[in-house]
Amino acid sequence: MHKSKTLFYISTYLQRQRRASYFYVSLFTFCLFTFAASLAQENKVTKTDTTQTTNSNLPNSPQAEQGDVKITDGTHTLIRITDEGTFGAIEINPGVPSTTTDKLYNDNGTLKFGTTSLGGGTTTYAVGDLTQGGYVIEVTPDGKHGIVATLQNQGSVSWYAANDVLSDEAYHEVSGKNFKDWRLPTKREFNLIYNLQASIGGFSSSYSDYWCSTEYDSADGWYQVFTTGAQGHVNKGGPHRIRAVRVF
User: Fold this and answer.
1) 149 CB contacts (<8 Å, ≥6 apart)?
2) What is the pLDDT of residues 167-209, one digit of tens each?
3) Nearest CA-CA partner of 237 in 165, 159, 164, 162
4) Which of 16, 35, 161, 180 could form a disulfide with 157 if both were Cys (CB 3.0 to 4.6 A apart)?
């Protein structure tokens, strides 16, 4: 009887010792991981990828820090991904790529994909911008609106047939196909185009008379001569080249 009680006490004692050992081992493991996490937070490691692009003047240098990823051009931060706030944020520096097809970018505060605005601030424009389907020839004082000319001719037709041709996307290059409000330029607008023709490009040197939308009378319409800058009027039934504009 005494022997059974002794064995019982020894078994109970060993069980208690094992439970105590498990507790202290678990406590030690928890403290060790907590210490390691705290040490990692205090000693952030910065990694730099100095891989060069095909253009040696434009290093691709992502600088990754815990919770903060930066992509730079070597001097300026282009994209920054941060863990600030509850969900973090992505910052994209303003800048319009020369070719916007299938690209996400920050156009002066407006986020765009290709030519489609995804929202953001108010975009402003300047003469010479390639946007809105062509070349900007004039802007309003606040820079928010203006007139754009297409980058190619739309053919040679009579004054009467011009607007039908201008509304047909088959006569426009890729960016111009996205708009349906093309029209003939007025006399004043064609003078603006004439002064910018070298920058806009695509004008014929051999046959340089272009229809204006302005009428001289019921039978004649005005045209612009692109070799001399002169303007004249002629019967609307004859063919002249056409170049479209639109207001944005």
Assistant:
1) 134, 135, 137, 185, 193, 196, 200, 243, 244, 245
2) 999 999 998 998 999 999 999 999 999 999 999 988 876 778 9
3) 159
4) 161
Higher-pLDDT residue of 97 and 49 is 97
Sequential DSSP letters for 22-35: HHHHHHHHHHHHHH
Domain-wise residue ranges, the chain: 47-123, 131-247
First to last CA, the chain: 104
146-149 vs 156-157, strand pairing mode? unpaired
Q: How far apart are CA 65 and CA 71, in angstroms?
A: 11
> What percentage of the chain carries pLDDT values higher than 70?
69
For residue 243, give the DSSP letter: -
Mean pLDDT across the chain: 78
In whole angstroms, give the CA distance from residue 17 to residue 11: 10
Q: What is the distance between the alpha carbons of residues 107 and 115, in angstroms, rounded to a whole number?
A: 10
| Residues whose CB is less than 8 angstroms from the CB of residue 158 and which lie 6 or more positions away in sequence, other chains included | 236, 237, 238, 239
Distances in Å between the Cα of 133 and the Cα atoms of 9, 14, 98, 174, 246 are 92, 85, 14, 8, 9
